[in-house]
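Tutorial, part two.
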Amino acid sequence: MNAASFLLSQLESGPSATDQEILFMMIAVGLGTALVFFVIFYFLTRRTTNDDEDERFVEENGIFGRLTPGLANVLPESEKENQDFRLLLRQAGFYSFSARNSIYAMRLVLFLLPLFTGLYFGVLFPEFMLQYAGVGIFVGAALSVIPRLYVYGVRKKRIEKIRSGIADTMDMFGMCASGGMTMNESLEHIADQMSEYPELMQELRILRRQIELGSLEQACMDLIQRVNIPEMRQFSYLLMRSSRLGSQTNSTLIEQADHLRAMRRHYALAQANKTPTKLVFPLMFCFAPAALIMLLSPSLMTIYDFMVSKEGRQISENAEMISVNADTVVGVDLGSADAGGAAGAGGGGE
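Running the prediction step on this input gives:
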């Protein structure tokens, strides 16, 4: 019995008071679920537009507008967890003030949506209420992890893109330093030229602004915290040493850039050497069965054709007759042995 037939039967037969309550509850849950879908779709489409007003609205209020802070704080977390998650967001490139609230609000919505859906089907089919509720809770708990996993994935891809452009940054910084440009001028020039690496360009511009507003050491330490990889730490320490000691770092930067490129080549070779090992299981479970089918199919078809032919049936019948005769001979021998044993026992008794 599906939902449509249930509703039609209730409308035709004139529902009782209890049935009316169930009907109104189903309608309310359905409308609530549709409203949640509409809100998610509406704000996601607003986020993908290029209108500056819509982008400012999302940046200031979050993905669900003014409801975002309330939805984000329904599931509380400790202060340390909040700080760790804010650091994770910064490492992933989410510098908006509302990024944390948007992720937490989406987590709550992804948890409640399957839960309400399970309760909705539980009301439709009361005999399976516990099963639907359990499935809704399980699916909601699984979906609520997706926003955090998404942030982890964005951070990983972003760090790899930044790592691929640090060697060029060191080269350009060394050339700018040898040309007599100041550190701020060098950073501004490099950021303008690094359009191929937008993530690294964003970090360099943030570094330049922090140097203008504060100290170089604090700006470099904050950069290390945002992009915590060995290459960026090396670059930041070179900048701090140059500022502290007043020494020229152009040759050192160029040497380090060559060293980073050599490391990248070794890393690429290591990944290439791992490829045959990673292909073992796909080959075994995907290509090997197909190859076996192609190789064994002709032999199996030949055997099948022979077995269904006249000669094959004759051989099968002969084998069955031999088996029956062998069973008969064995039975006769066992019967003779039993009779002889009984006669011997009778003679001994006399």
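The CA atoms of residues 68 and 154 lie 22 Å apart. In part three we will examine how such features are distributed along the chain.
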